[in-house]
Structures are given as C-alpha cells and as structure tokens.
Write a structure and sequence with these properties.
The chain is an alpha+beta fold. The protein has twelve helices and seven strands. The strands form two sheets. A five-stranded mixed beta sheet has the order 1-2-5-3-4. Strands 6-7 form a two-stranded antiparallel sheet.
C-alpha cells in the first residue's frame, strides 16, 4: 500500500498587511477630504449666504403676497436679486478695512500686518520677512495663505489696487537680481500674480518697486532695516485709470475733436500763444555757401557767420 505524503499548507502570517494598507489608504483619503472641506473662504461664504437669503426672501414674498397672475413679475424680481452681487461695484473703503481686519485678525494683533487708511485709500503693510526668504522674490507658503485671504476680500469689487515692494539699503547683487530695485519690483510682481490667480481682475492691479528709496525707519539699525523690508498694498477709492480708452475717446471719428470733460482735443492743440508757436520761416533750414567753399545749414540766412 502506497502511503501518501501529506501536503503541507504554508500559513501566510502577513496577510494582515493587505487589510492594514487598505485601511491606511482610506484614512488618508478621509483626512484629505476633511481638510479640503475645512478650507472655506469666509468672504465668499458670506456673499453666497447673503445672495441665497435675498433669493428665498423674494420667493416667500411671492407666495404670501402675490396672486398667481402676479407671480411672474415677482419671480423675475427674485431672479434679479440672485444675480445682483457686489461684483463690478466700488467697495466702501471703511468696509474694506473692516473685512481686512477680520481676515487678517491674528496677524494684525501680532503687529505683523499693519492696516491704515484715509478717505482715498486703505493701506495693508506686510513685513517682507513674513512672506519672502532673504534676497528672494518667491512667495512662501504662509504668504500664499495671507494673499489668498486678501484676494477673497478684494475680488468682488472694482477698486484699483497698487502693490509696492520696498527693501533696506544693504546692496544686493546675485544671479537673480542686480540691485534692490529689481528685487523689490520682482516681489511686487509676485504678489500681483498671486492676487490675479485668486480672482482679482488683472486690470485693477499695478506693481511698482521702490528699492531702498522710501524708508519708514532708520537703516542704521537692524530693527530699522527690518521695518523697511516690506510689501504695501493700497486699495484706492476709485477704479484704475484706463489711458487707452481716454486716448481712443480723444481720437475717435477719424480725428474729429471729442469732448473730454469741458475741453476738446482742438482746444488743447490751439491753446498756444503766438509768441511760442514757431512760424514756417523760422523752421525752414537753408544751405548757405561760405567764402571758404563750405556749406552752412541754418534757419537764419541773415545771421553773421564765421567763414574761417
């Protein structure tokens, strides 16, 4: 009788790793979703909440106070309320300052961001050490968060925004920047690009670099130099000027004078005194033959000349 050799079954003691890895993957996905949900723009949330509240209030008024025949005009009114939002409007500067104080509350309390303003603008001053590495113009992760919050406040409106970069007076020269002007300008452009990326209309934005030439503190001390290294955002009361549109308004209709305020293009051209307007004879240049055989080109043939 042939005895069968028993087959040994190898027990895999590491199968738990499969379930464990699946669990870890699901856990990671869960936290990613939770994190993305938690990143809600407060300004956009408030705007959506106000818009929806107006819409539902309009619908409630239609149901309570309107007959079926009059429901259509009221519903159109509710739709207009839904479509009406702060977009394409100028913001009140006091409201902008309040929203900025709310969005940047922690940094303002720590004096890392300074808010100020008057009837013409709101100024947001941020120390460069907070948003840039030394001698660099690339925004840090913290800076991106700060300017995203600022963009959320500014995006719904039409006010012009100027971003200016400032440095201390210590000379800089590296492979990226030849001087402080270039560094400050590049930093301002980085901020402008990030604001535009986060919803602020590019035509509202301008960037300028002042280098070390507009200090607010003494550059002879370390604290003074640190204060001078800053980026400043100015939110204007008005819209950004559109010089191209103004030029087109002046020259439209094939050069026909077009009124701009109380003046016209013709008035600006003709408004010259006779004494300062050169005549044709004054500007005509004629060649005069000299006694030594040379030529003299002049617009005054009667003036004395030296032939030697």
């Amino acid at each position: 009788m042939i005895r069968r050799v028993p087959i040994e079954t190898k027990i895999n003691h590491e199968r738990w790793l499969v379930s464990y890895s699946d669990f870890i993957t699901l856990l990671f996905a869960f936290f990613v979703v939770m994190y993305s949900v938690s990143q809600v723009s407060e300004a956009k949330y408030k705007e959506l909440s106000i818009t929806l509240s107006k819409a539902f209030e309009g619908s409630a008024n239609v149901a309570a106070n309107s007959s079926p025949e009059s429901a259509l005009p009221e519903s159109e009114s509710a739709e207009q309320q839904i479509n009406s939002s702060p977009q394409n409007e100028l913001a009140d500067l006091s409201q902008v300052q309040k929203e900025m104080e709310t969005a940047l509350e922690g940094l303002v309390q720590q004096s890392r961001v300074v808010l100020s303003g008057n009837e013409d603008w709101v100024e947001i001053e941020i120390n460069s050490n907070l948003i840039f590495s030394s001698a660099e113009a690339e925004l840090s992760d913290e800076a991106k968060t700060i300017f995203t919050d600022i963009a959320d406040v500014l995006a719904p409106y039409e006010n012009a925004v100027e971003v200016s970069g400032h440095t201390d007076d210590i000379p800089i020269s590296n492979s990226s920047f030849a001087n402080n002007w270039e560094l400050s300008s590049a930093r301002a452009v980085s901020v402008v690009n990030w604001l535009a990326y986060n919803g602020v209309k590019p035509e509202r934005l301008s960037a300028v670099g002042y280098g070390e030439y507009r200090p607010i503190a003494d550059n002879t001390t370390e604290n003074g130099r640190a204060a001078n290294r800053r980026v400043v955002l100015r939110v204007a009361r008005d819209r950004a000027e559109q010089p191209k549109q103004q030029a087109q308004a002046l020259m439209e209709n094939d050069g026909t004078p077009t009124s701009v305020g109380e003046e016209t293009l013709t008035e600006k051209v003709i408004d010259q005194s006779p004494e300062t307007t050169p005549s044709e004879s004054d500007t005509k240049i004629e060649p005069i033959k000299l006694e030594n055989g040379g030529l003299l080109f002049t617009n005054d043939p009667n003036s004395p000349r030296n032939n030697r």
